[in-house]
TrEMBL record:
PANTHER family: MANNOSYL-D-GLYCERATE TRANSPORT/METABOLISM SYSTEM REPRESSOR MNGR-RELATED, MANNOSYL-D-GLYCERATE TRANSPORT_METABOLISM SYSTEM REPRESSOR MNGR-RELATED. The lineage of its organism: Bacteria, Bacillati, Actinomycetota, Actinomycetes, Pseudonocardiales. CDD domains: WHTH_GntR. Signal peptide: none annotated. Pfam families: GntR, UTRA. GO terms for biological process: negative regulation of DNA-templated transcription. It comes from the Bacteria. This is Transcriptional regulator, GntR family. Residues 1-17 have a biased composition (Basic and acidic residues). It comes from Saccharopolyspora kobensis. GO terms for molecular function: DNA binding; DNA-binding transcription factor activity. SUPFAM superfamilies: Chorismate lyase-like, Winged helix' DNA-binding domain. Residues 22-89 form the HTH gntR-type domain.
Length: 266
């Protein structure tokens, strides 16, 4: 009898699922919730569907349903071609004018930039207008992947005023742009307007961020100026599972009833 009791305890410790009022996918979901939230470090891989199916004596369809519910809750994330991982804590940003590198360093994270494309070209009409360019004037186009602690965090695609930043494409574009502009050109970006929206990642953005196409991303379009001159028109796509924005909202003193974020250093 003692041996049977020991075996039962071992089976329970292993998490064998039993028939009962709670469906097996729900039982497995709670086991995985405990594993992800209490035992594994953020960014750790969880066992594969096959391993979980064998371990808990269920079908892969049951495993897929349990994992899918935790992905929907944001506790797990699927990375195409790599597997399923526990999510990292979201980076929380209070809106202020700072480079990605400065923002991540301030949070104790290691920033990394991969330069995907750099060229001088004629920008779209709305960008030309935003940067105050002459008709058919050119600007510098940059396409970069930004990482934090090794995890893809954001994709940046945007333009810089070529006339005010001669030779920019010959500089090191894998570090803080704002530091480069200050040290090389004496340009300090002081003010900006930023539009934030949410959308599903297109195939190229999803591939770079390591998420499925259609996954939620936060999109920021920022136009920044120095001494009243527009310098930057940049759009960034941030992973929705790793990034969030906090804003302090104050009622407009003019009495219009509008709310606006306070832009200040964190």
């Amino acid at each position: 009898m003692a041996a049977r009791g020991t075996a039962d305890e071992s089976r329970r410790a292993e998490g064998v699922l039993r028939d009962g009022p709670m469906p097996k996918h729900a039982q497995l979901r709670e086991i995985l919730r405990t594993l992800a939230s209490e035992e594994l470090l953020p960014g750790s891989p969880v066992p594969s569907e096959r391993e979980l199916a064998v371990r808990y004596g269920v079908s892969r369809l049951t495993v897929r349903e349990a994992v899918g519910q935790l992905v929907a809750e944001g506790l797990l994330v699927r990375v195409r071609g790599k597997g399923t991982f526990t999510t990292r804590p979201r980076v929380d940003s209070q809106l202020h004018l700072a480079s990605f590198t400065e923002d991540m360093l301030r949070r104790g994270m290691h920033p990394e930039t991969v330069l995907l494309e750099a060229a001088e070209a004629i920008p779209p009409e709305d960008t030309a207008e935003a940067l105050g360019l002459a008709p058919r004037g050119t600007a510098y186009w940059l396409h970069r992947l930004r990482k934090a602690d090794g995890a893809p965090m954001a994709v940046e695609r945007g333009w810089y005023h070529a006339g005010l930043l001669p030779g920019l494409l010959h500089q090191d574009l894998t570090d803080s742009m704002y530091t480069l502009l200050d040290r090389r050109y004496g340009v300090q970006l002081e003010t900006g307007t930023q539009t934030v929206l949410a959308e599903g990642a297109d195939a190229d953005t999803a591939r770079l961020l390591g998420v499925r196409p259609g996954s939620p991303v936060l999109v920021f379009r920022r136009i920044a100026t120095a001494q009243g001159r527009p310098i930057e028109d940049m759009t960034s796509w941030y992973r929705g599972d790793l990034y969030q924005v906090t804003m302090q909202l104050d009622r407009d003193p003019s009495g219009s009833g509008q709310h606006r974020p306070t832009i200040r250093p964190t």
